Amino acid sequence: MILIHCPYCDEKRPEIEFANAGQAHIARPLDPSGQSDAEWEAYLFIRANPRGRHHERWRHIHGCGRFFNAVRDTVTDKFETTYKAGEPRR
Amino acid sequence: MSGFRLETGGRIDRSQPVTFSFDGKTYTGFAGDSLASALLANGVMLFGRSFKYHRPRGLVAAGSEEPNALISVNRGPGRFTPNLRATGVEIHDGLKAFSQNRWPSLAMDFGAINDRLGMFFPAGFYNKTFMWPRSFWDKVYEPAIRKMAGLGDAPTAEDPDVYASTYAHCDLLIIGAGPAGIDAALGAMDTNKRIVLMDEQDELGGGALADPALWPWLERSVKALTDAANVTILTRTTAFGYYHDNFIGAVQRLTDHRPENEDTPREKLWRIRAGEVVLAQGAIERPLVFDGNDTPGVMLSSAAKVYANRYGVAVGKTPALMASHDSGWHDVFALAKAGVGISAIIDVRESVDSALMLEAERLGIPVYLNHGVVGVNGRHNVSAVDICDYGNQRVHRVNTDALLMAGGWTPSVHLWSHSKGSLKWRDELGAYVPDLPNENVVCVGGCSGDWDFGTGAVIDMLPTPKDQSRIKAFVDFQNDVTAKDIKLAVREGFRSIEHIKRYTTNGMATDQGKTSNLNGLQIASSALDKPVPDIGLTSFRPPYTPQTFGALAGHAKGALFQPTRTTNIDSWAQAHGAVFELVAQWRRARYFPKAGENMHAAVNRECVAVRSSVGIFDASTLGKIEVVGPDAAEFLNRMYTNPWKALEPGRCRYGLLLKEDGFITDDGVSARLAPDRFHLTTTTGGAARVLNMMEDYLQTEWPDLDVWLTSTTEQYAVIALQGPNARKVLEPLVEGIDLSAEAFPHMAIREGTICGIETRLFRVSFTGELGFEINVPTAYGRAVWEQLMAQGAQYDITPYGTEAMHVLRAEKGFIIVGQDTDGTVTPFDAGLDWAVGKKKPDFVGKRSMARPDIVAPGRKQLIGLLTDDPNVVLEEGAQIVADPKQPIPMTMIGHVTSSYWSEALGRSIAMALVAGGHDMTGGTLHIPMPGKTHSAKVSGVVFYDPEGARLHV
Questions:
Q1: Which residues numbered 832-871 in B keep a CB inside 8 Å of some CB on A?
Q2: DSSP per residue over B246-289, as a string?
Q3: Which residues of chain B does A44 touch, with a Cβ-Cβ cutoff of 8 Å?
Q4: Which among B605, B658, B771, B883 would be 20 to 30 A from B595, CA to CA?
């Protein structure tokens, strides 16, 4: 069972306290109505599936409840780092 | 030949005889014996029948790597455990053990015919032979094969035992308590580290238990470790899996070795998080591959030494050794010292260390170098072996009653591999050893390839002058895989060891290749003419040895499998004979049958009561979220499809929630209590999901909004009071709220008291009747309910359950999200476009409602269905076709989502999702059901009181 560092609690906690919330750094367009079908499709459906470093969102759902970002290696399943929502991509 | 108890020696307690049975026959052993050693001491050589060919099999090993001697233990009703290794079962008085995979008896087994037909059972035999006809597989082939080929019987009765589980943390976890593991523990003992030392056996020592010279050291060491306050020792504990971040799963066997079944837990699951792990699992001796190597009496030489030195049992009177490694020589020297006569040492090598030769000569043991065993005589027991002089290819016979194999050593890298540590190939060992770690872990001792057993030659199988196609030289004893099978797989084009493994089953199942992996690799390597590292290595997977489901499940079974959520009113429903159903994890009253009533009658009566007088319903399970803050209205306006900012305090609104893809995900009525405070309700099953979704948007998309979300689902008991007499029941009990239609209209909320208890009183209706939903603090739910029941008695107030609730809402065309929608239904599809704020610039899901595939024609839309025969209630889930006469397979254009008998209308009603359904009103559709195809007219979804006159009273 993986240990995940919550950047808000500043604690490493077992993964059962967390929930994955998909790829990170996909901001909802500020004006969805102004999006073309293709742009909206890309926002809604198109996601990276990298082999290696992957930016994703997690929620410390059975802890502080905060969403945060993480860099996880999809090959080794190791977390490289976690950081607060709103901070720049690492 | 047969084994026998030596006059002296061993760690058994000869003053404590133990009586047990095997296949119904009674035997005696001593305290400290394993089932294997005790049976061996009684001359038993035959332990089981092999998996596929039903060949007679005896012991190969003395530890958990034993592939053959799988037995069942029966500890009474529900306490039947199959597939235990006899080498790991401690005997106790009354132990009842049984052999497996034989009928009618172990000595005379009809299935053994498979062995004679062996030429017809090559690798991939089942796949090749039983492919056709396909329809025969499930009913004919597979049951027959399963009966013939297999391991022990699965237990049939419920397991009455209790299993414990615990979490533990330590700085240093040492797995394996042989000399290397004990040394690691002694070395760390004087630090302030919290240390856990575990071993699968009943006492610490590992290989040292078979080496009397080490016993004084062992005794001192165990005492020192036992006395150390920072060391926890776990015996009979198998580390079965190594998971991320030094998380180890282990099962401790607590009671199976004791004579009586006890109330205390049988096993305990340990989940251990360790700072550092030391793996000291040791190494497993490798069998040699030659014709007849599975005959009972052929075993690992290290095992023979364990039986002699640890258990005081000789495996034969005059065993011979077949070696390719020095360690076998040392083993038979130890046997000679214990008083066992050695008939011969046969070694495939042309020369060995002169010290070995001298010792053999001193002990008077005949030595055959550059020789190999090419045949084993005896079926249930070794009587002689044929050995070939590789110099001149001549074969001659050596009389012996047991044959010991010493094929070198395989480091136990199972847990290391679970942890994703890498391996490197070492040619001189013919084995993979740990290379780079992936966790904070080190391997020490035998499992790191570090041992002092001497050296050996690495060979795939013993050379033989015999026709290779006519011999049975086993690689995997447990799965009955021969060298021939692996060569056949290569001839048939398999190149990767992963494919060879699956085609031949080498190294699969409970064994995980402990004795077979490396020999299989060597044979495949020779056949492919490629170095071993080039053909790969299969993955080791947990569990290291099989574990019981009981230990893994722990307390999570029966009623404790998952929590059952109950409301404060649940106890009243229970006392009043409710029939319950589970909705998500909630237990809800489905209906309240009176004496003699079936569900149909009860539901009809409950529905009539609501429509004609008053019904009462426990709606406490509704999801509830308190939304508070200056931006609360703005937030809801962005989340829900409809406008919220203009909603006045004291009013309610039906909210429809989409996902960003435009599909309905939840709905519910919500109330504005104050400019900055809303009381949201969600579906019973959607509460957690909706809160998570709202938190997601609030935290990550609109962190600038000043809003707080709090789950209040469990803070309120909710009582729905529905029916024309609802107000009359409520009036005498409520204070501080004017209940008149003018002061308290439909879709309004008021705060006051009921029976003196603070309440948030909603005037809402999920039935189409005058209705109220009374929210009180949870603890008062049942008390208020009982007051309402008393007050409503004069109106024959009727409790109703979820079934009547469903009928009543369906009569009004109210959807249930998840029943009438399926995650691909838009508000327009569901006929809920009235709930979408057309003027709102944005809300979650709005942009998607203009996606090309969502505006395209032919989408499935929600319609009503009225069967031509009003007495037919369609099956929910039934498929719908336009033309019942079309050829099969028919084109299905939709399905029935909700279907009930409506007592109010005196006929059946149904809702359905049908492609292009909104344009079909008045048309006829057909619903094929078992026995008959029914026809139905397409209607709107509001079947009862379409004007809503009954609501506004």
A1: 841-842, 846-848, 851-852
A2: TEEEEEEE-STTSSS--SS-SEEEEEEEEEEEEE---EEEPPP-
A3: 660-661, 848
A4: B771
